[in-house]
Specification:
Strand order of the largest sheet: 1-4-5-8-9-10-11-14
Enzyme class: oxidoreductase
Number of strands: 14
Protein name: Uricase
CATH topology of the largest domain: Urate Oxidase
Structural class: alpha+beta
Function: Catalyzes the oxidation of uric acid to 5-hydroxyisourate, which is further processed to form (S)-allantoin.
CATH class of the largest domain: Alpha Beta
Number of domains: 2
Bound molecules: uric acid
Catalytic activity: urate + O2 + H2O = 5-hydroxyisourate + H2O2
Oligomer: single chain
Largest sheet: 8 strands, antiparallel
Strand content: 35-45%
Shape: globular
Order of helices and strands: EEEEHHHEEEEEEHHEEEEH
Keywords: Oxidoreductase, Purine metabolism
Length: 326
Amino acid sequence: MGTTRTMYYGKGDVYVFRTYAQPLYGVKEIPESGFTGRNNVIFGMNANISLKGDAFLTSFTKGDNSLVVATDSMKNFMLQHAGQYEGSTMEGFLTFVCERFLETYSHIDAVEIKCDEITFDSVQVAKESGLSESELVYRRSRNEYGITTVEVARTENGTEIIKQSSGISDLQLIKVSGSSFYGYIQDEYTTLPEAKDRPLFIYLNIAWRYNDVTDAMGIDPLRYVAAEQVRDIAQSVFHQLENRSIQQLIYQIGLRILERFPQLADVEFESNNRTWETIVEMIPKSKGQVFTEPRPPYGFQKLIVTREDLKKERNAAANAAYTTKV
Ligand SMILES: O=c1[nH]c(=O)c2[nH]c(=O)[nH]c2[nH]1
């Protein structure tokens, strides 16, 4: 057990659409979000499955397929188990499938599954009673989507989740006013003009890890963190903060997420700067301007905000309040 070399194989682009999965309701309410749950009428994802284990070595070195689970069978395995999953989250479903793989094939050491949610939006339709939400028709969303990774390994006492993260990807947000970027190093390489108010367009990927992975499963919805709520926090903090840079913005979003969800250990950001290029600075009798898409290359930021950061910020705020009082 405990494969040390890099060796795995699997199947990507495994599309799973399960209808009428268990709804997810009863998540904790937070001020930044009106999200109350997912009906899971369509529980959809694009998965990537990897099987790991020393037993697979001879399939590479000797062409011995006697222990090979065909990747085509892996796809079937996951799809069949989608019909058996009784929970309401991708995290729970991936864990269930990983565990069933290990149970079924005793020579597998570990299974890793990553997946991107395939989201569908509800639509309003004309009914006899007027316009209301259809319970039959859904519109494929082209917006941000949840992601999750689960890896379960065989141990002496059964199985253990050795990797788990959840997230939201491809969130694209524009703030038309209230963002600046100035005060950076000015030297012979600097051509960027300082901006007191720029149209800040950002691409964001946010991922989070729980202190206790069982909270990620959604069995206790009050302890589950929904990607929709994290998205809504990011939007609210972007709205509220007169930001001085993307660096400052993502740190503040991270602090807010950790504040709202004490069950999380840390939050990881990948951001991309897509600030619109200004074409018409002044339009007479209007506060509007004209912009176009920026040209490459694009700036990026990467940051992990931890519970330690939140603790430091709280202490600093408490000290500042104390000093003002005295
Ligand atoms: O938010 C920003 N951070 C930077 O570090 C940077 N650098 C740059 O050219 N534009 C920006 N914007």
